[in-house]
Amino acid sequence: MQNTKYPHTKRAESSDLQPDHQVFTLFESFPEPVFMIDPDGIILQCNMTYAARFCKQPEQCMGANVYDMLTQALVNPDIAARRRNKVEEVLSTGKRLHIDDSQDDQIYRSTIYPIRSVEGVITRLLIIAQNITDHYTAEQAFAESQEQLKLIMREAHAGIWEWDLRTNENVWSDELWALYGLDPISCKPSYAAWRDSILPEDRLRVEQTVTAAASQGKEFSVTWQTIDSSGNNLTLLSKGIPYKNNVGEVVVRYIGIVVDISEQKLAETVIQRQSRALLATNNCNEALLHAKDETALLQKICSIIVDTGGYRMAWVGYAELDEAKSISIVAETGFLTDYTQHRWLSWADVPQGRGPAGLAIRTGRPCAINNIVDNPLFDPWRKDALNQGFESLIALPLLADGEAFGLLHVYSSRPDAFDTVETNLLMSLADNLAYGITTLRSEKAKEIALADNEKLQGQLLQAQKMEMLGQLAGGIAHDFNNMLSVILGHTDLALQEHDLAQPIRGDLYSIQAAAKRSADLTSQLLAFARKQAVQRKTLQLNTIVEHTVPVLQRLIGENISLYWEPEASDAYIKIDPVQLDQILVNLCINSRDAITGTGKITIETRALSVKENEPATNHPALIPGEYVMLAVSDNGTGISDTILPHVFEPFFTTKEVGKGTGLGLSTVYGIVKQNDGFIDCLSEPGKGTSVRVFLPRVRHKEIMSSPVTPAAITRGEGTILLVEDEPTILKICTMMLEKNGYRVLTASSPAEAIKIAEQNGAFDLLLTDVIMPEMNGCELAKKLQTTNPGIKTLFMSGYTADFLSENEGIDKDIEILGKPFDAKALTVKLSQLLPPPRRGVQRKSHE
User: Fold this and answer.
1) Rounded Cα distance, 242 and 607, in Å
2) Which of 226, 235, 497, 719 is spaced 20 to 30 Å from 768 by Cα?
């Protein structure tokens, strides 16, 4: 039935008011209200969402007048009138129109689509209402700054189509023309036109999907890419629903909708990229939690970024503090990793340092280049980067305490790969990586500090043990010296007897020699205990070594041969003999321990002259002069290059625990330096080691210029107060003094000496032990000086004046007689302190 007001329209027949379940199914696929009316406003079909707005079921709405329903339901009657006017405008113009209105603080956009018959007559109007409140609000806010984007934010970009399978005719809504990139003037809607609008790479797939669904009468959903009328590449989604004939046997047509999902597709791509970036970040964080080694961690991070994050390449570089401020790449993974090789990178403000890497380190902020092709920052590297397939990149600084110490560099094969979200994710990854690196370094430093502390603890325990041994050795040596004094004293007294048989005299000489040799041993014990001061003497080095070789041979064992090769004939040096023994013993023991099984040790001497500015190729002497070299060499295991620089460090040893103190070579080093010499160590693994000592040479004329004048020995006179807490020493000293003509007052303690002095008055000399109970010898002497002013004092001790000054507070300048001593030494010392009596004058008695 023709509409009288609009001749090109047709009213609905009664059959059109029957529910069409297929159309209802299609309408129900829309979440927003959808309904269809005839030109007079009679509702032909609607979905549940539309009917619910009027608190009705869809069946209750069909046949009702839409304008009456709006007038009854809405508070504002103008809305119904406005919608009627829009419908009449569509009927008069035949064009799709929009109408926006608000309800319950919500804004709806209703799109009115004219639906034509095959003859072109408008038979129905399809109205789709969309809630555009959020879009509208966003459009209003965004329009203030970017008016040109308002249309994009408002438009839904959707169209309706109908395809008659019997006639192959198509009906398209106006929107489809723009979406398909076709001109409605020069082209009619057709299956072929639609097919040809699909990009070739999608065309076959889409057509096969649609024809397969049509042959089976099934719904279909398919996406494809096309180019719209503005030349934009779009991704479209179409859903089609089949309609069968009146008897429900054959599908005669399809009705569908086409939606532009380009933005959704782009969002999905972005989300996929961001998801990969997030997954890479999570995996990197997992790697950071379990990292133990910095180099392995950096390589793992680069691999995760490439393999999981989907980037083309990644590398980590550190900012060096050299003059050029170079960047050293320490880890890299990805396509053609040799891209970074043979390249000099810098973070200095120079042309090579003004790229993203240099900027990121200097500023401490990420630097992204989303299009390598035209970004001037990347001019020096653009050609090679494009050849590698790089389109964009980002440099992320690694920060510690606000300063960049390196960077993470990531390349992508896509332009515009690093948006805000992705940059933030990667920056978070870089921050975590920087924290992980600093944490690993801190833990490594703690481990080193802990190991050093344990080493120091071990060294302290070793030093304490050596100190205890030194104290023990010093105590034993002191007591042993007392015993030796008794032995030497009695031997001397016995040898002064003229009627001794020759065999007995020979035995006494043997005892005397053994006692003196024992005295030398106690002297070495005191030196080990650091209780004997250095007493330098001018020595002929070859003579001392030659006498020591037999002892050294017994020390190193029979399986090792000891060779003595003297070359310097005039090898005089000035050194404490005990220190020279220490040098030889320590070096030979080290050589012995370096030999497995049989081997040989060679001791050699050589004189040499070091001239001004002479290269130290064959010697380490830095000061020009005359030197004597003492070298101890072996054919043992040798020392590696990594260990060789440390051999003279205190407590450094390569021997097993309990088999070395680490003091041997350091002691030798200290002795050599104390005597103004030089030392070096030459070694090669598997071939052996040679330690060379260079000591200043003493000229022969210097030796002869200081002859020793023997002290005049005279028979003594006078009274001596002898104080000694050791009875045997007290007894033998008394005997030696009286044998030499002295009158002796004896005391076994300082208190007894004071009492004797008070009872006997003046005496000529105080001869006292230093270390005694109650008070030491020095304190006793000071006390006696109050009653005997100017009295001379001679101290006796197994320790030197240096040690007594340091440990007992006794003046270094005291006259001291070292234990053990014989009668001759005692007599000489007394004769130096007491003036000889004048001839014919008898010394006054103190009785």
Assistant:
1) 114
2) 497
pLDDT (mean) for 324-335: 85
Residue 533 near residue 568 (C-beta atoms within 8 A): no
From CA 439, how far away is CA 289, in angstroms rounded? 10
How far is CA 370 from its chain centroid? Answer: 33
Exposed / middle / buried, residue 369 (Cβ in 10 Å: 0-12, 13-18, 19+)? buried
Q: How far apart are the first and last CA of the chain?
A: 171
Cα–Cα distance for residue pair 722/769, rounded to 1 Å: 9
Rounded-to-integer distance, Cα 173 and Cα 29, Å: 19
- The 8-class DSSP code of residue 308 comes to T
Gap between the Cα atoms of 302 and 308, Å rounded: 10
Residue burial 617-647, b: 16+ Cβ < 10 Å; e: rest: eebebeeeeebbbbbbbbbbbbbeeeebeeb
Beta bridge partners of 314: 333, 410
* CA atoms of 252 and 69, how far apart (whole Å): 34
Pairing of strands 792-797, 816-818: parallel
CA distance 37 to 58: 13
How many CA atoms lie within 13 Å of 58's alpha carbon, on the beta-carbon side?
Answer: 21
pLDDT of residue 66: 87
Q: Which of 177-186, 382-391, 536-545, 608-617 has the lowest mean pLDDT?
A: 608-617
Which of 489-503, 641-655, 675-689, 775-789 is least confident? Answer: 641-655
* pLDDT at 371 > cutoff 90: no
Would you place residue 76 in the very low, low, confident or very high pLDDT band (cuts 50, 70, 90)? low
Contacts of residues 413-420 at CB distance under 8 Å and 24 or more positions apart, as own/partner, are: 413/312, 413/389, 415/370, 415/371, 415/372, 415/373, 415/391, 416/370, 416/371, 416/392, 417/273, 417/311, 417/370, 417/391, 417/392, 418/368, 418/370, 418/392, 418/393, 418/394, 419/270
